[in-house]
Every structure is written in structure tokens, then in C-alpha cells.
Amino acid sequence: MKAVFLTALDLEYQAVRSHLAGIRTHRHRAGTRFEVGRLANGGCDVALGLVGKGNQPAAVLTERAITEFAPFALLFVGVAGALQAGVDLGDVVVATHVYAYHGGTSEDDGFKARPRVWEASHETDQIARHLYRSGQWTRCLPEMTTVPRVRFGPIAAGEVVQDSAISAHARWVRQTYNDALAIEMESAGVAQAAHLNRSMPMTVVRGISDRADGTKVSSDGAGWQSKAAAHAAAFAVALAQDLAREMGSGPSADRSAKRAGAVRNIARDRAHVGVQVGHLYGNVSIGQPPVTVIDPAARLAELRNRLRQAANAQEVDEVTFSAAEQELALAAETLPKSAEDDRSTAVIALKRAYGLLSDQTDLASQVSAILAALR
């Protein structure tokens, strides 16, 4: 299972990427490039993507990332402008909820707000607050960094860069959303996509890089974007590690496993489900004689031997080989001995191996075949 990190700007992307090891490119079939790796201090597997500016592209690419990686958690990391006088440059804001503030109706007597709001999940919010209280997240900060304050509160997400304290837009935002701590342009799209995916755990972590009051040019010139992005990345990386530990067991893990592997067809009225398919590789026939049942243990042994051959031939790099072999070894140890045995551990390990080997068509198809046999 992976945690997905998404950012809007390149400097935000680099701030998260600096915490990763074993990085390799993952190409989505539609052309999007993600990078996958592992948190450098021995944490969880991670997929990292760049969504660009604006809520609409953020929503589209968030949906793409969720579909591609079936993550156990989604973290949106970056910079934002402050909306409250007490929120300082460099502070970290963790969203308790996100306002999509551009919703409304224009009438003769003015513009009436019709916002949409997405709240952070209670479990994720509690984990984030405990992490803040413990102070352990500060270990992820760059050396010689003054520890910033962490604040929990609403974030407003719209479609414009706000850099004024006195414009009509600025006055309206501060009056209508007067509890918002920060303002930016992507979180509403990310929150919408997460909400539509069975309320996937999603966290927005923003570092304050300007005051949204007309001083953005001077703040950016003083390097506050890079500093704020580094602060937000540090908290988000530490949070991902805690989420991985917390969601490794219990109901959250069950939900994550279902997201990662479930294929569900619904038949209504007189309809019947004839074929239920996740991923298909090779030749596919329907209505033909039954497919020969394979022995998962034997196929897994063949796969591990083929993986070693590919590594020796330098078809698979050393980091990928080591990580994939570790997952296949775990799958071999936890293969169910009978139809009644719990197979979830082996299935999840094989899915992780599939993700690592997705660029190797032959190896990935063998993993898929073993998964099909287990199901």
C-alpha cells in the first residue's frame, strides 16, 4: 500500500521529493508522470505527483492518482497565503475543513455565498493533532531550521491568487469565511476527488509563504515559498508515517485493502453478473472450456526465479529487485494453506510487488495471474 503525495508547484514537489529514497518513474497510460519510492527514513511506500495550479486540474489528477495507486491515504502539500493576523510566515496549517469559496449566486443586492465544505476525517485529524503534540514531526525538518508553529483550522480554496487586503474580493473572502486561516487554489478539487472515492482519508498541509495582503512579491523574494514548502513537507511526511502505522491494522486497513483490490459488479432486476474482471493480461476468452487452475505456490516460486534472472540481466534495477523480492518472500510465507485461511497478507504483498514491477510486462502479468488464483 502507498501514500499519495500531491503538490501544485515544482518547489513543493521538490520539498516532498527530498524525503524519498529509491525513486523511480511511474508512467500513467494517459501520460501523467508520477514518481514512486519509499520515505528515506524507512517509512512507507509513496507515490508523488504534480497537479499544477487550480482546483479543476487538481481534482482530475487526484482522481487519476487514486485510481492508479489505491492509496491508504492522500496528502496535499504546499504553500498558501495567510488570512489571519496571527498566522505568521513559515507557520504550518493543517486543514480541519476546506471551503470551495467561489460557489454562490449573483443577485441584485449582491453576491450570496453558496460554499461547499469538506471536513477532514476524524481519525486522520486526531492522528495529526497527536503528532503535533508529540513534537516528533520536527525530526523531519531540515537541519538548523527554527521549528514553526502548527495550526489546525479551515482553508479557503478558490480560483484566483489573492494578494490584497483591501480589494473587494479580499474583503468578501474575509467577511464570508472569517474563520479561514489560509487561502489557496487547489484543495477544494483534491477534497472533492477524495470524497467521491469512499471518503478516502485526505489531509491538506500548507506552509504559509505570504500574507495575501499585497506583500507577496517581497515575501517570495525573501525565499519564504521554499521555507514554507519545506515546513509543510516535513509535517506531511511525518504524518504519512503515523498514518501507515495506524492503518496497518483494524478497520482502516480493511477499507484500504478493499480499495486496492475489490472489483464489484452490481446486477439489478433480472440481470446477472457473467464476468467480474480487475486487470486482464494476454489472451482472454469467454464461453470457452474452464481455465486450468494454477498452483499459486508453484507459480510464485517460478516468478521469484524469473525475477532473479531479470536482475542478473540488469532488466530490473537493484533497488526494485530488492523491494519486489521482499514482497514476494512475504507472500510465499503467508500463502493460504486452505480455502478457509486468511489470504489478505499475501494478496497485499503481491499487489505491492505488482506496483514495483508494473513497468516489466512479463513479470507483472505473472503477479496478476497469482493474484487471480488466490481470488
Automatic annotation (TrEMBL):
It comes from the Bacteria. Gene3D superfamilies: Nucleoside phosphorylase domain (3.40.50.1580). Its EC number is 3.6.1.55. Coiled coil: none annotated. One of its GO terms (cellular component) is cytosol. InterPro entries: Nucleoside_phosphorylase_d, Nucleoside_phosphorylase_sf. GO terms for biological process: L-methionine salvage from S-adenosylmethionine; nucleoside metabolic process. GO terms for molecular function: 8-oxo-7,8-dihydrodeoxyguanosine triphosphate pyrophosphatase activity; adenosylhomocysteine nucleosidase activity; methylthioadenosine nucleosidase activity. Residues 3-238 form the Nucleoside phosphorylase domain. Keywords: Hydrolase. This is 8-oxo-dGTP diphosphatase.
